[in-house]
Amino acid sequence: MLNNDNKAYKSGFISIIGRPNVGKSTFLNRVIGQKIAIMSDKPQTTRNKIQGVLTLNDTQMIFIDTPGIHKPKHKLGDFMMKVAQNTLKEVDLILFMINAEEGFGRGEEFIIEKFQTVNTPIFLVINKIDQIHPDQLLPLIDAYKEKYSFKEIIPISALEGNNVDRLLEQIKKFLPEGPQYYPADQVTDHPERFIITELIREKALHLTREEIPHSLAVVLDKMERQKDKDVIHVMATVIVERDSQKGIVIGKQGSMLKEIGSRARVDIENLLGSKVFLELWVKVQKDWRNKMSQLRDFGFNDDEY
Length: 305
Known about the structure:
Layout: E1 10-17, H1 24-32, E2 50-55, E3 59-65, H2 75-87, E4 93-99, H3 106-115, E5 122-127, H4 137-145, E6 152-155, H5 164-174, H6 192-208, E7 217-225, E8 231-240, H7 243-250, H8 255-272, E9 275-284, H9 292-297
Parallel strand pairs: 1-3, 1-4, 4-5, 5-6, 8-9
Antiparallel strand pairs: 2-3, 7-8
Helix pairs in contact: 6-8
């Protein structure tokens, strides 16, 4: 396939693999230029494959931000691991992202063991280099060279944007010739409804901090444009596992839920390009992370993987 300049057009799927909280979602949002993956300093924030599409004049890169690889503690965790490991065999290139501050540990060793059965080219992407002294970088690179033969080793700062363009240039070299899978103006294959629930969940995670772990899900109940008005009415339910968590999410006289809604509404309006009237409710579903029927209801469809 040729582009407008009669050059071969390249396209491919790139999986971003790594331990929880190494900056995968931050990188994806940086590359795509807008928020499609939620960000949190809590591990296991990403639960589904988030596909971000970057379309250039001669290349289309489809990035898959997978759940952070970790030891599962419940059925939701099993689902997340299945998603992450299956993508290793489905893509044209793997970006193994690490946190420069954390060095090499058992978690990284566990991931590298998974690479032994994969023929896909793998880049080591050392993220958060803005958080370490430059003298610490070379020993870190040497340590990883001993563990695996990476096709490229590229240090970046996804937050600051340092060296991200160089990484994209190297990715382009490894992608095969292929079609433009998505329209040029499409940045994700996820429907708006999914992204809206993720934006609400992000605000709830940020505001409740350590009080609400990852026993929190969001379900979109209703989204419709109000007649004769440029306003979209969104109704969603925040799901928690215990009554005590419900009280935390609602807050004193509804203050916490109001703040979650207020912050989420700003991002949802940016996403939809319209005024939004957002209503949030909170519901307790005890031990939902271990119940397959409820996992499916909340969008974690194990049959797809």
